[in-house]
Amino acid sequence: MAIAAKPVGASVNTGATYYPDNLWLLDEGTGTTLDDKGGGTTADMTIVGASVTWVADGTHGNILRAASGNTTSYAYADSALGATASILMVGLFRGNGSNPTAIFNPMGMASATLTGRYLTAQVATTGRWAVIADDNTNTPNTQFDSIDYHDGTVHMVAIKAQDDSLSISVDGGAWDTDLLTTTWDWASAGLGRVCLFGSIRGTVPSLQAMAPDASDGSYDAIAMWAYKDNWAAWDDAFIAGVYNSEDPWTAIGLTTAVKKLKLLAHPNAASATGVYGSVFEAPTGGALTGNKIGNFSGAAFEATLENNKAVLKVDVADFGGSALTTSSTPVAIARNTSYTTGVLPCTVIEE
Fold this sequence. Notes:
CATH class of the largest domain: Mainly Beta
Number of strands: 26
CATH architecture of the largest domain: Sandwich
Number of domains: 2
CATH topology of the largest domain: Jelly Rolls
């Protein structure tokens, strides 16, 4: 199994069935701010220290990596997600190397002001994932998944908690649930801090870096998101739907924009079909065209006019124009059996 590649330059469909309240795509690739693109209370995270760095991954584009032996770096937001009764957190993570020699907390929440209140996803030395919560009773409640997932591939880890239970799911599998013998006091926990690659189990409310030991491989975060206060809806079918047969990106509402050449022609061309043509780079030095980029065929003008002009849109991939950007100014000639345009200026759009 393999998680689908993270879309590059994707936009977010806020009407998607599994669109989250908080969404950190971790696709910035530079800087120290992790933008929250979710639909709830905004909680942009900040990277602290130099051992959590941006990496250009061959499959998932920009990702965050915690270096081996990291003791100084993490990302966090001291911003309550607005949950009052339950929380569901999802992360896509990859361990690079053998099972960790010490427990590791890639994702969690904690109180920013109160001692010992936390909820975290943890990787054990067996490579299994666990969900752990404590409300300062010094007897943390733990629920383990039963499979070693520390195998060098990306896995989707989900944890959820409410006052009387903790649950964990990996790769959209059925929830493993622990019904707590002592009710966990969500309200007093005051979980106002969200954290990535940080330990939140200290005896004082503080952030401590928690990444693989020096003898372990690095650890990658591909993306992370959260839902709040909808426990009844978060059943096995829900988390399987989020996983979406290895494509959680579509499930949470990511759509990749398609680059297209846009040409405006005489209104008589509206609805014309069987259109073919040639596309050229922007002209220079008084020439009519620049170098030829490529040809297209099988296109059609739209029926609706724009500013009294007929509109033709062609995917840039159809004529070898993938290198074009929205700032490019190519020109093109289009024709069919009835019409031929002159050399017309074009724009490049994304939709």
